[in-house]
Amino acid sequence: MAMDMWLKEMQLEGEGVAMSYKIKETLLRKQTQYQDMAIVDSEVFGRMLILDGIVQTTIKDEFVYHEMISHIPLFTHPNPKKVLVVGGGDGGAIREILKHKSVEKAVLCEIDKDVVDACKKYLPEISCALDDPRCEVFIGDGIKYVKEHKNEFDVIIVDSTDPFSIAEGLFGGNFYKDIYEALTEDGIFVAQTETPFFLPDTVRKVFSDAKAIFPVTKLFMAAIPTYPGGYWSFTVGSKKYDPTQVDITKIPEMDTKYYTPEIHKACFVLPKYIKEVIGE
Ligand code: AAT
């Protein structure tokens, strides 16, 4: 008897919306110290990392998210040497960061060691750079780590789960103040900040919290098929460099599938309804 297995993701249950994926096989299911973790093989997106029932990354579309969360800040800062990723235990952002020759050290601060171990085993295409000598993997809470480091990072990337439970404190003013202090004097930070279509209040709050702290605050968008709404936001807070004013003719060629110098400019051009969400 043929059996169809579907994963129904309820991230937007409160909004009355769910996404479903046809699943071929469950490769791993584990209750970690922090969350319910699964690695499944899906029909359309290949292997996926699922945390508390929510799709975090997939083999097929991870490039969009990881390229955009990394290359926008790293090509805005003229000479990024030391980079911190908060969350991002799959290693996708680290892989993109280490494509930049100027980077001497990239620290990954992930709270859940089981995520790192599972991604190393089942998602090697994404986690492949975690063993690079320029990468340091630190297992611990990003909120504490950022508080304990001052004036140290040129770029901080907040690659976190959605704003509930362990990740709740990674969205908002108190955390952004600590990020400001953990950055060097011309540092820049970027965070994944959810769907403006379904969660306008979240996007509005995060943007205004960042704007209260950083002299330059901008929102950019990317099309990520497995994140609800498909059209995902990222917030940049910068002490000095404006990501929209980068001279894109000076951006060197890089091995990417989504990011291009033209996309660097275009991703900051926002539809009217999103401008209204953030009051710009
Ligand atoms: N690269 C895309 C994948 C992620 S996963 C985000 C990671 O953040 C998870 O592994 C989770 O364990 C980690 N995390 C959550 N809270 C903390 C914390 N306080 N400190 C450190 N790490 C943390 C992002 C997907 C975005 C999903 C959008 N729907």
Automatic annotation (TrEMBL):
Residues forming the PABS domain are 4-239
Per its UniProt record, what InterPro entries does this chain match?
A: PABS (IPR030374), PABS_CS (IPR030373), SAM-dependent_MTases_sf (IPR029063), Spermi_synthase (IPR001045), Spermidine_synt_N (IPR035246), Spermidine_synt_N_sf (IPR037163)
Q: Which SUPFAM superfamilies match?
A: S-adenosyl-L-methionine-dependent methyltransferases
Binding of spermidine: at which residues? H66, D90, D159, S160, T161, D162
The record's catalysed reaction(s) read: S-adenosyl 3-(methylsulfanyl)propylamine + putrescine = S-methyl-5'-thioadenosine + spermidine + H(+)
Which residues bind S-methyl-5'-thioadenosine per the record?
Answer: Q35, E110, D141, G142
* Active-site residues, Swiss-Prot/TrEMBL: D159 (proton acceptor)
Q: Name one Pfam family in it.
A: Spermine_synt_N
Entry's EC annotation = 2.5.1.16
* Cellular-component GO terms for this entry: cytosol
Share an example GO biological-process annotation for this protein: spermidine biosynthetic process
Give GO terms: molecular function aspect only.
Answer: spermidine synthase activity
Print the keywords alphabetically. Answer: Cytoplasm, Polyamine biosynthesis, Spermidine biosynthesis, Transferase
Pathway assignment: Amine and polyamine biosynthesis; spermidine biosynthesis; spermidine from putrescine: step 1/1
Recorded hits in Gene3D superfamilies, A to Z, give: Spermidine synthase, tetramerisation domain, Vaccinia Virus protein VP39
What is known about what this protein does?
Catalyzes the irreversible transfer of a propylamine group from the amino donor S-adenosylmethioninamine (decarboxy-AdoMet) to putrescine (1,4-diaminobutane) to yield spermidine.
**What family is it from?**
Belongs to the spermidine/spermine synthase family.
Q: How does it assemble?
A: Homodimer or homotetramer.
Q: What is the recorded name of this protein?
A: Polyamine aminopropyltransferase
